[in-house]
Amino acid sequence: MPAPHNPFKAALKAGKKQLGVWSSFAHPYPIEMVATAGFDWVVIDGEHAPNDLQTITSQLQVLEDKHSHAVVRIPTGNDWLVKQVLDAGAQTVLVPMVDTAEQAKALVRAMRYPPHGIRGAGAAGARASQFGAITDYVGTANDEVCLLVQVETRLGMENLDAILAVEGVDGVFIGPADLAADMGHPGNSAAGDVKAAIKDMLGRIRGSDKAAGILGVSETATQEYADWGAQFLAVGVDVGVFAKAMRDLEGHWRARI
Predict the structure, then answer these.
(1) Partners of 13 in the beta sheet?
(2) Which of 103, 165, 169, 216 is most buried, judged by most C-beta within 10 A?
(3) What is the tens place of the pLDDT at every residue in 12-45?
(4) Hey, which residues are catalytic here?
């Protein structure tokens, strides 16, 4: 019995566009609600949301067999963090702040069992193998894991072509906010030189064998990213959507009563 099929990885490889959203509530109940919307992928954010291994695991359990594929963003590219979320059942991992090809190569190895990597082979006790019920998990899991690396600094931008040449990286995700800050425009990813850099990088990624990804938080930016070739495109953050809706609701009725 092999490792489960990864539909998100297959869709990226086939060149299909994948519409996604960020989830930052760090709780299974709201992410279950998000999953009813029908997005192709949902990020469980372990970098800027208050998630830990247990909350990530509970959200993976909720998303299992849903249309929305779970993408787990870990806080940093440590191999032990990769190992933990893979054993918890994640198949697709998003890693922030990848600046060099050497970092990308190390992450590829962290995602895979030997001889192609360094992932520890204790899968029998892990949720990923259904606690040993998937008898050929270790032998087949390498083909179904999906690695997405975030390029979001000037150094990463300079090394983009080398990162794109790394075998085992499935997609490159541009982080507009961190890139803008690193380029001297904190809080302004719409600055002209930042937009030009994003457009250039999306084009370079699209011209490679990797999938191009990005998050848009405004309608204008999201449409531009789509037009510039983003293949896996996140169109919002659930916390932001909820907060705006609540503030708009309060403002609407405050003006009337």
Answers:
(1) none
(2) 169
(3) 999 999 999 999 999 999 999 999 999 999 999 9
(4) 48
